[in-house]
Design a protein that fits this description.
Layout lengths: L2 E2 L2 E2 L22 H29 L5 H28 L2 E3 L2 E2 L7 H4 L10 E2 L6 E3 L8 H20 L8 H25 L2 H5 L7 H19 L4 H5 L6 H20 L7 H29 L4 H15 L8 H25 L1 H5 L6 H19 L2 H7 L14 H30 L9 H6 L1 H5 L15 H4 L17
């Protein structure tokens, strides 16, 4: 350590531009970028825990509150261990196949304190006649990169869980999470972000419209098909047990999206600022459009509908958040507030397949439809100057800007079809493998009782000091006055 007037300064606290043979890292570390990236990752983490834990636990029937929240919490923890053990490098490491990285741990000290880099991301001109865009190397350590992208992976599995609430066997879910992360998520992440064939071809996915939302929407829908539906009475009436807490979870999700889209430029730069602004513009527009459509056609402004409109807006802007102008974000918000509304409220009721598959939270509409819509809209509205700030393929542009814009739209559609096809295949195989070990669906008794049968716990204590009032002990014939304090009617 250098001696400055007798005071010794640890290397970890030296200025970012200090060079030292012993420290080896301070010459490239940008503390502002590092701070923003860790804040972005933490904001995304708050979207999952507590965001979606609260939202799922509140938007379902009371008897499924604990199970739904726990599915999200378990996925968050399980993804973390799988991510650092093998999945990170499958997504962002050295190339094994054009769509997959080499599996290896992200746990070693030497690896984690070195400068962050995506080794497969060096982009060459056609025919490899020279480097067009250098390898992605942000100005912070690899530990920050691993942390940031783990939050994306965890959030994807938790979003997928929304399709399976209210009936999936928890033991099956425990197996499903690491398998789907390994054989589905890592493929999309490497192909589009880590240096895979879609990345180098120029398919645009700024922050996960395809990697996260399209994959979770399609994967959730396919898994819901194999798991089977909820009980008929649950499908007919599945009212939220706490609308206000549901809004709390939705609010955490919206605010956390600043890290979701604002962190993807890997820097605290002008592109991250624009991405956050566009994210809020699109989400607000989409919420308002969805609510207006509810009022026009159903004569009541639905709170759940507003949350769905918010979600579709956040999803739709994600693939192009830092690449479109703000007026285009409004247009995309109008699209995301109307097209998924139409598929959910009209198409769903007329298409037998959509009615047959019990997608509990409508993740197919809010994520798959909105994600595909956002990717296609990015192929239309991506602005050339903004594209050059972020994309490896120089001179990329959307359809309305002429040139190769039409080609970009075709690339977007082809990229979406790859993600859809891979997820249908991978999710189907995973579900078939899991059901060889444990049933995918809960038993009929568990489905009738809910949380108490599955976990031995319930979300709310309605009387006493937490114990349930047992009618088998007290009988069914006593007067109301004999019931515990606060209970006003017989069950």
């Amino acid at each position: 350590m250098p001696n400055t007037g007798g005071a010794v300064i640890p290397f970890a606290y030296q200025l970012g531009n200090v060079t030292s043979a012993r420290s080896g890292v301070t010459e490239w570390l940008n503390k502002g970028d590092n701070a923003w990236q860790m804040i972005s990752a933490t904001l995304m983490g708050l979207q999952s825990v507590p965001g979606l834990v609260i939202l799922y636990g509140s938007i379902v029937k009371k008897k499924w509150a604990v199970n739904s929240a726990f599915m999200a919490l378990y996925a968050f923890a399980a993804v973390w261990i799988c991510w650092v053990t093998w999945a990170y490098n499958m997504s962002f490491g050295e190339q094994l196949l054009p769509f997959w990285g080499k599996a290896r741990p992200a746990l070693g000290q030497k690896f984690l304190i070195a400068r962050a880099r995506l080794p497969a991301s060096t982009h060459y001109y056609e025919g490899r006649k020279g480097v067009e865009t250098e390898m992605i190397e942000p100005f912070y350590p690899m530990a920050t990169m691993v942390y940031f992208h783990c939050e994306f992976a965890a959030l994807t599995l938790i979003m997928l869980a929304g399709s399976l609430l209210g009936r999936m066997n928890f033991k099956a879910w425990m197996m499903f999470v690491p398998l789907w992360l390994t054989f589905s998520y890592t493929v999309g992440a490497f192909s589009l972000w880590g240096g895979g064939f879609l990345f180098h071809w120029g398919v645009i996915d700024f922050s996960g419209g395809y990697v996260i939302h399209l994959s979770s929407g399609v994967g959730g829908f396919v898994a819901a098909y194999w798991v089977g539906p909820r009980l008929t009475k649950d499908r007919q009436r599945f009212t939220p047990n706490n609308v206000l807490l549901m809004l709390t979870g939705a609010g955490l999700l919206w605010m956390g999206w600043a890290g979701f889209n604002g962190g993807d430029p890997y820097s605290a730069n002008v592109d991250s600022s624009l991405a956050i602004l566009n994210t809020n513009i699109c989400a607000a527009t989409s919420l308002l459009v969805w609510t207006c459509l509810d009022v026009i056609f159903f004569e009541k402004p639905s709170v759940i509908g507003a949350v769905q409109g918010m979600m579709t807006g956040l999803v739709c802007i994600t693939p192009g958040a830092g690449l479109v102008q703000s007026w285009a974000a409004i247009v995309m918000g109008m699209m995301s507030g109307s097209v998924p509304w139409f598929t959910m409220m009209v198409v769903h009721k007329r298409w037998t397949l959509l009615q047959k598959v019990d997608d509990t939270m409508g993740v197919f509409h809010t994520h798959a439809v909105a994600g595909f819509l956002g990717g296609a809209a990015t192929g239309i509205f991506a602005e050339p100057t903004l594209c050059n700030l972020f994309l490896p393929v120089t001179h990329s542009r959307g359809l309305i800007y002429g040139g190769d814009g039409g080609t970009q739209l075709i690339k977007q559609v082809v990229g979406a079809f790859f993600v859809i096809g891979w997820n249908i295949m991978a999710t189907t195989i995973i579900c078939l493998v899991v059901r060889l070990v444990v049933p995918l669906r809960m038993s009929e008794e568990q489905l009738k009782i809910g949380d108490d049968a599955v976990h031995g716990e319930e979300a709310y204590a309605l009387w006493g000091d937490g114990e349930k009032y047992d009618l088998t002990k007290h009988g069914h014939g006593q007067d109301i006055e004999e019931m515990p304090s606060g209970v006003t009617q017989m069950v």
